[in-house]
Amino acid sequence: MLRPAQVSKQRVANNSKGNGRKTAGYNPVAATRVSEILKRLDQLYPDVTCALTHRDPWELLVATILSAQSTDVRVNMVTPELFKKYPTVQDFAKLDPQQLEPAVRSTGFFRNKSKSVVGAAKLIVNDFGGNVPENMDDLLKVPGVARKTANVVLGTWFGKAEGVVVDTHVHRISRRLELTKNDDPKTIEQDLMKLIPRDKWTLFSHQVIWHGRKLCFARSPKCVDCPLENICHAEDKTWSTVEKHKGAKA
Ligand code: SF4
Predict the structure, then answer these.
(1) Measured in angstroms, how far is the CA atom of residue 230 from the centroid of ligand 1?
(2) What's the 189 CA to ligand 1 centre distance in angstroms?
């Protein structure tokens, strides 16, 4: 699926190309440039979806809460046993958070996460008849759920594009690609929602998250292999054939 860029042997790596000044008239959020970025992401990651293992919206909600400051791989190691032990949201709602702590300990921040998961279960059972809400306003009432988690559940499970998931990868890569100059996830989300067609919001998030895992690492991104390289002016690129732009960095 991932096709490394065709890098000519004659091209010489130039890690310091560019003086940081932008070419006059350059607009990083021009519709043609954004559409080219989306096209290349589609070619690179045509069928990607959420990497968190889940069978229903409750499991996805729990997995997303557990994934904060952790990795999907780590969470996927924990959740099969967890859902075997507590198969329904009602089972979670009967727990004290302390009872859940050992099972989620390895995902980090386990005390807060246990509180959030049990609190979420109680609210969903008491206020929503045991069903995960299908809209942003109600989801944001659930303990441990902020816009990022709500967007994951709405987009991935319910197929509703209410926003763009801004996790650490989307945050970093949107800045490198100059789709935003902001640093706050909520504002970045607003910037992306203005630039990207609504029917692409969910897929775009998944594609960028995969790009962050495969190539555009926080440290030492693999720019030499990146098919977006010649339209990416990130200041912290490790290899570049185009000018780098000051401030376009993670
Ligand atoms: S060229 Fe480098 S910094 Fe730019 S998107 Fe690709 S991997 Fe990331």
Answers:
(1) 9
(2) 20
* pLDDT of 12 over the 90 cut: no
pLDDT at 15 over 90: no
| Average pLDDT of span 71-94 | 97
How distant, in Å, are the alpha carbons of 7, 44, 240, 248 from that of 18?
19, 27, 9, 13
Distances (CA, A) of 100 to 70, 122, 139, 208: 17, 14, 22, 32
Q: Is 179 near ligand 1, meaning CB less than 6 Å away?
A: no
CA 67 to CA 121: how far, in whole Å?
17
| Amino acid occupying residue 94 | K
Q: Is 121 helix (H, G, I), strand (E, B) or coil?
A: helix
pTM equals 0.88
First to last CA, the chain: 26
Catalytic residues: 148, 167
**Is the CB–ligand 1 distance for residue 228 below 6 Å?**
yes
Distance CA(133)–CA(151), nearest Å, equals: 12
Of the residues 43, 169, 176, which should be mutated to test ligand 1's pocket, given the most ligand atoms within 8 Å of the CB? 176
Mean pLDDT for 56-64 is 98
